[in-house]
Design a protein that fits this description.
This protein is an alpha/beta fold. The chain has 13 helices and 13 strands. It binds pyridoxal-5'-phosphate (PLP).
Length: 395
């Protein structure tokens, strides 16, 4: 049987068996509508409340501030569009960064077509938002700052506390896309000055198609989906009860296991990075070397195409991701890799590997060995590499 080494946990994760188990009864025996008044529906309503409480506890907040959504993308859309609408009288300026997920970037671009002005902040070579630029970008008309907690491609963790403080000082709302950070890093919304936070179930070993938006009490925010009275009338539609129960359980387990998991993943991450850097010349690590997600490894290999590398890794049973947007029909390297200043040709040779607690050191050895062989093979076919070697030999 072909070996499978799954190293694409930033794309999605395996749902934990305990999470599936918690969800199952809500598809079958306990199927009532949480809005119904009879006794039969009471345990359904209670399960939704328990999930909301479990999630609120992980962020140090109240259950009333957690709103369930259909995932991270919806939470990002809601936070940004509804805040823009609710605060339109105060101003029309939004600050974000160049390295946000498309759920944030494309939402901001949409708002630009509807009378809003958006500043896309540069990041440094490690992918860290420049705080002095952020402060300079603030105008009297700024109503919202939306900066991701940690980047999904290069793993860099942003200076959230400092951004929260700057936003608070100027009376500006602060939203963070924490889809990659939630469940992996400790987050206290009060300590960090976060007004809105997006998270997603399937990035934390929970189900797909369910997530939440945290909205601080007192933030004026409009309903996103109009209809019934669910989610305090702000997000109508019969609740995805099994999904919500699964998300709650996944959030709880993620919080309980966070410290140990982060330690294990960081060790594996560092081991893999060391192995690959030792074996493969002309390789760089993308993203901040220490302020990064415990499970994120991102390389750029000179003289090769990330897409070819991915296909050959797949033939060895290794699932990873490249830094280009080929799947979306474009050959441009990712906006994140370009924003950290990588030239096109180097950005094209990028590979993202995102680990889980289930990976082993032995797997990392296998992966490093596979990368070494494949990169050597691809470079041998590369005219660029040939030229480079010739030039160096002549020196
Ligand atoms: C995956 C991801 C999203 C989208 O979440 P979905 O639940 O898949 O819609 C948004 N932001 C970041 C940073 C992500 O990694």
């Amino acid at each position: 049987m072909k070996r499978l080494i799954y190293l694409d946990n930033a794309a999605t994760t395996k749902t934990r068996p305990q999470v599936v188990e918690a969800m199952l009864p809500y598809f079958s025996e306990i199927y009532g509508n949480p809005s119904s008044v009879y006794d039969f529906a009471a345990p359904v309503k209670e399960a939704v409340t328990a999930a909301r409480e479990a999630i609120a506890a992980t962020l140090g907040t109240r259950k009333e501030d957690i709103y369930f959504t259909a995932g991270g993308t919806e939470a990002d859309n809601w936070a940004i569009k509804a805040a823009a609408e609710a605060y339109r009288e105060k101003g029309n300026h939004i600050i974000t960064s160049r390295i946000e997920h498309h759920a944030v970037l494309h939402t901001c671009q949409y708002l630009e077509k509807h009378g809003f002005e958006v500043t896309y902040l540069d990041v440094d070579e490690n992918g860290v938002v420049k705080l002095d630029e952020l402060k300079k970008a603030i105008r009297p008309s700024t109503i919202l700052i939306s900066i991701m907690f940690a980047n999904n491609e290069i793993g860099t963790i942003e200076p959230i506390r400092e951004i929260g403080a700057a936003a608070k000082e100027h009376g500006i709302l602060f939203h963070t896309d924490a889809v990659q950070a939630y469940g992996h890093l400790p987050i206290s919304v009060d300590e960090l000055g976060i007004d809105m936070l997006s998270a997603s179930g399937h990035k934390i070993n929970g189900p797909k198609g369910v997530g939440f938006l945290y909205i601080r009490k007192g933030v004026k925010i409009r309903s996103f989906i109009h209809g019934g009275a669910q989610e305090r009338k702000r997000r109508a539609g019969t609740e995805n009860v099994p999904g919500i129960v699964g998300l709650g359980r996944a959030a709880q387990i993620a919080a309980e296991t966070m410290e140990e998991r982060a330690k294990k993943e960081t060790e594996l991450r560092e081991y893999l990075i060391r192995q690959v850097l030792d074996r493969v010349p002309y390789t760089r690590v993308n993203g901040h070397r220490t302020d990064r997600l415990p499970n994120n490894v991102s390389f750029a290999f000179q003289f090769i195409e990330g897409e070819s590398l991915l296909i050959l890794l797949d033939s060895k049973g290794i699932c990873g991701s490249s830094g280009s947007a080929c799947t979306s029909g474009s050959l441009d390297p990712s906006h994140v890799l370009l924003a950290i200043g990588l030239p096109h040709e180097i950005a094209h040779g990028s590979l993202r590997l995102t680990l889980s607690e289930e990976n082993t050191k032995e797997e990392m050895d296998y992966v490093a060995q596979a990368i070494e062989e494949i990169v050597a093979r691809l470079r041998n076919m590369s005219p660029l590499y040939e030229d480079f070697i010739k030039k160096n030999a002549c020196r």
